[in-house]
Description:
The relative contact order is 0.19. The model has no long low-confidence stretch (mean pLDDT about 95). The chain has two domains: about 5-220, Jelly Rolls (Sandwich); about 225-330, Sandwich (Jelly Rolls). By secondary structure, it is mainly β. The longest helix is centred in the middle third of the chain and has 9 residues, at about 140-145. The chain is globular and about 60 Å long. The strands form four sheets. Strands 1, 4, 15, 16, 17, 18, 19, 20, 21 and 22 form a ten-stranded antiparallel beta sheet that branches. The chain has an eight-stranded antiparallel beta sheet with strand order 2-3-5-12-7-10-14-23, with no helix packed on it. A three-stranded antiparallel beta sheet has the order 9-8-11, with no helix packed on it. It has helices spanning about 60-65, 65-70, 100-105, 140-145, 205-210, and strands at about 5-10, 10-20, 35-40, 45-50, 80-85, 95, 115-120, 125-130, 155-160, 165, 175, 180-185, 190-195, 220, 225-230, 235-240, 245-250, 255-260, 270-280, 290, 295-300, 305-320, 330. Strand 15 (about 225-230) and strand 16 (about 235-240) form a beta hairpin.
Amino acid sequence: MTELYPLLMLPAFDPRPWGTMDLSPIYPNYKCQEKIGEAWLTGDDCKVNNGPLAGQSLAQLSTRFGRELVGSAARDPKRFPLLLKFLFPEEKLSVQVHPDDEMARQVGQPWGKTECWYVASAQPGAQIALGLKPGVSRLQLEQAIHSKRAEDLLNWINISSGDMIYVAGGTVHTLGPGSILVETQQQSDTTYRLYDYGRPRELHLKEGLAAVKERTASGKVLRPAPGKVNGQNNRQESLVAAPYFVVDTFELKESKNFRTRDKSGKDSVQIMVAVEGCGVVEAPGMEPVTLAKGDAVIVPASVGEFSVRPQWTVEFLKAYVPGESLPEPVTKL
């Protein structure tokens, strides 16, 4: 009998100079003492907030439980595979790049940082910058950084609530103000800042320029139309299916059953992040866990089967590691 059960995570609020003092759209009860840019939900150091394992970090639990927690689809049995977090940009982030797997291994990291952003909300005119404009070379980017016009060479695109953005490792990018995003990424915190608008933070030009790819598969993910599940009252939509993660969104008005094993036969830890409403995560023989807006609940792979029962209605993202090899998604800028 496993000691694991559905885990309610304690958000870790991370101050950033581009963040906000107002988290009320997601965390109405959190009072900021400084600008908060990110709320980490499943980082290595994030801690469990319920049951006998309360106070334990995901790094500790991954080392202790291995594939019981992370599942057979994860690349490393002793490392939690995916980091999910909220982003709250009130000013522009630095122009930055994350390495892909190949570049990360060259500097001693186990893997790179490919990520995706779900736009939970966006004000009119909110934008992101994603990749170099066609024909722009790394050398031209380097020259533009030194002349303080790096953002002129990037693809700026408008974003709206409900968009899913795929950001492959090696893609130069930044966020503008006016949105709230849910990020899903490989478990890595390797970021190379290329340009930071004069803010007094370290830049990483040598490593960053080496990691930049002139062309990538990054962009807005082209998705099928949402489908109904369990009759006409529940809605499911595939947001992105990619080599490192699959993310779907659900809007439930009736209880829905889930499994930790996908059609490949491999199982994976399941991570749910609520963006609206409230529900209850239930698994046979285990204490129920409330999933409310801003919460993340982790269902260990060994749990096998579980359900989410809405308290009137709940909308959440569900992320996991695919058991089969998937291509990069189809995108557009």
